[in-house]
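From: lab user (bench 3)
To: helpdesk
Subject: output format question, protein + D-malate

Hello, I'm new to running complex predictions and I'm not sure whether the block I got back is the full result or only part of it. Here's what I submitted:
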Amino acid sequence: MYNVLKLNKIAAIGTERLGADYNCADAVENPDAILVRSAAMHDMEFGSNLLAIARAGAGTNNIPKDKCSEQGIVVFNTPGANANAVKELVLAGLLLSSRKIVEGIDWAKTLKGNGDAVGKMVEKGKSQFVGPEISGKTLGVIGLGAIGILVANAAVALGMKVIGFDPFMSVPNALKLNPHFRFMKSNEEVMTNCDYLTIHVPLTPETKDMVDAEVIEKMRDGIRILNYSRDGLVNCDAVLAALKTGKVAKYVTDFGNDQILGEENVIVLPHLGASTPESEDNCAIMACDQIKEYLENGNIINSVNYPNVTAAKVGDKRICVLHKNVPEMIQNVLVEIKANVVNMASKTRGDYAYTIIDINGDAATEKLEAIDGVVRVRVI
Ligand code: MLT
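Helpdesk reply: Thanks, we reran it on our side. This is the complete output you should expect:
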């Protein structure tokens, strides 16, 4: 029986897939795995049983990934599972940033009580809410992962010129982009050549404040900036100052904070990007399937701290070794286990690596964790 702790509401359509061998609940002692959405995990202590954490979502900045790597806990996310939901809200944000929809709705409410005069008042007052069309304008997309690609292609379909950049762009992802999309050579080239800017990158020390006063200064006048990725990517002091001068016309974000709430020309949504039943189901299914695959077969799919390694299980047993990415590690492990190896798969990712070794018969695994650089060993 595996114990799985849910730190947030995770759709039952996902947790049901774990099956009868799993006790998956909101309060579980010594969990083998944790399912999480937005709960902050940085101050949590992890038990020695804990093998995996799966985030039902894309961003993982609520999880202490370095600590998890050191303790041999594999962290998963669900890339793409909520991409369509976020894309749809970004499209809404594009229109909210351009046409004065929010202001118009607020004003229309103030006309309540004017009886038959409402129609005339609307026609007289509506000119305050003129805003440009997006068709024919240029959208800059920073980050071309699952969400960025969907946003770029949808914007092309809406008649926009779309440019973008992603230093980690994969060939399969590049092939998914509409042929009218144009690649730029840097984030700055995107940011300084568009009328609308949308950001789809994780928050890291490298991406923090990527939209700052210096780059805003070089942007087109009246740019509209959309941030559906994370608070911290856009420097709030800089954007508020630029809104005051009109350099930035509108800032739409899914990540509010006290500084920007209620400010003129700022539209704050309460982190609704993935809040659709469809994406909650997709994320839950993906997170639960990945946890089950790792616990039962040792296969790693969509990890954010260890390499993805999968292989069909052959042989009598599978030895799973999470280890540091250092020389002679695999040789040392193979010497120690003295086993009849029938298959092996291994990959590295930064400072860490993962090796699965399928064997026939027995193996001496007791001393593996004592090898310098081995983080965790499991025999399935
Ligand atoms: C994500 O990280 O996937 C998004 O922020 C959506 C969410 O977590 O609700």
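A quick orientation on your result: The chain has a mean pLDDT of 97. Let us know if anything else is unclear.
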